[in-house]
Amino acid sequence: MWQREFQRRFGNVAAPFIERGLHRASWILPRIVASCYPYSAFPMTRGWAEKQRLGDLPGYARAEGSDLAQFASFDEEAQMLIEGGETAKVRPAENSRWFAQAAAEVAADIAEAERQIGSHRNKEFDSTVTDLKILANLALFHSRRIPAAVNYRLFERTKDPHALAVAIADEQNAVDAWRQMVVAAGDFYADDLMMGVRSADLCGHWRDELAALEKDVARLQQQQSDLVPRAAARPAPLFKASPGNTNLFSIQVTHQPVLSAPVDQPLTVVAEVRAATGVKWVRLRYRSVNQREDYKMVPMIPTGQGDQYKGVIPAQDIRHTWDLMYFIEVLDQQGNGRIHPDLNAETPYIVVRLQR
Q1: Which of 196, 226, 256 finishes a domain?
Q2: Does residue 51 contact residue 213 with C-beta atoms inside 8 Å?
């Protein structure tokens, strides 16, 4: 029924590309909010991820996303590159690649839909394609700004002028993506969209944000010109969102979710974990279904039965007030991390309904 309606609106040939483009694009805004969107922008009277550039580069680089357990921040990445460290979270390079791939896939569906639409072209098609172009370029913007943010944090931590130069170049590439978004929006949208309070910059048009971005770049360039070399500066590590690491996908987790458990009793979680390069560690993260709480961690240790690992949540952490949620973190011997359940395929945590 769903697909027949797409065919009625856009024709049999173009419909599948519109449907697929919308499905892929629907992942972009949640990913921005989870990984890049400053938590200070909540509630939604202060946030509009579709239109906001999310501040200048220094502010963007300092921000933490709304899901601190799944995504490493830009400053976390800079600190790990400088001082060493490891995490199973989605790191900025991987996240940048995700946005770039999403942008490319949506753009390909748009191009094919426009090629196939023929006589079925109508106002709904034009408006739908406009929104898809905006979302594709928004993903491209964040894919390019993420490296800029990490390199800026590397500069602030090391005072290396080269890191600032790379950050500025990355930011200029991101602005180019935003410029494409302005072209896509064109005059399909009003010049002064009223999406929230004006004092929070929730009105206007994408071209207003472009002007602000260009001013931000000019300030960065002035900062670069005014930079006084410091004896205390140290070379910054290289950061680049390079092609995906296939080792990440060689980590395999097989787990039967625990969906129900009694209160005030320890809860055992068991999983089979394999990695092509060997497993370095497996950890169990958990908390009550209460966003005011931080996740706690217990190690999952080998049971001696093949590739099986076991973690035990203490009884005192399984209280009757709230249900429980958990997920599993894995790191292989080459430093590649993975979280199970995988947020790219399903809800990235498991909820245990407590028997009260």
Answers
A1: 226
A2: no
Map tokens 């497996």 to a residue: 282
Q: Measuring CA to CA, how many Å separate 15 from each of 20, 21, 113, 122?
A: 9, 10, 7, 13
Q: What percent of the chain has pLDDT over 90?
A: 83
Please check whether residues 75 and 191 belong to one and the same domain.
yes
Q: Is there a single domain that holds both residue 217 and residue 274?
A: no
The CA distance from 199 to 81, in Å, is 37
Residue 57: pLDDT over 90: yes
Task: Give the structural domain span for 349.
Answer: 246-355
Q: Can you tell me the distance from the alpha carbon of 145 to that of 60, in angstroms, rounded to the nearest whole number? A: 9
The reported pLDDT for the residue numbered 216 is 97
Question: What separation, in Å, do the N-terminal and C-terminal C-alpha atoms of the chain show?
Answer: 42
pLDDT of residue 37: 87
- Which residues have a Cβ under 8 Å from the Cβ of 172 and sit 6 or more positions away? 217
Could you give phi then psi for residue 297, rounded to 5 degrees? -135, 140
Q: What is the pLDDT of residue 232?
A: 66
Does residue 233 fall inside a structural domain? Answer: no
Task: Give this prediction's pTM.
Answer: 0.93
Question: What is the spatial distance between Cα 105 and Cα 319, in angstroms, rounded to a whole number?
Answer: 45
Please, where are the H alpha helices in the chain?
A: 2-10, 15-25, 28-35, 57-62, 74-83, 92-116, 123-158, 161-185, 206-226
Give the pLDDT confidence of 192-248 residue by residue, as tens digits: 998 888 887 789 999 999 999 999 999 999 999 999 877 667 888 988 776 555 455
Q: State the Cα angle at 311 between 282 and 296, rounded to 5°.
A: 80
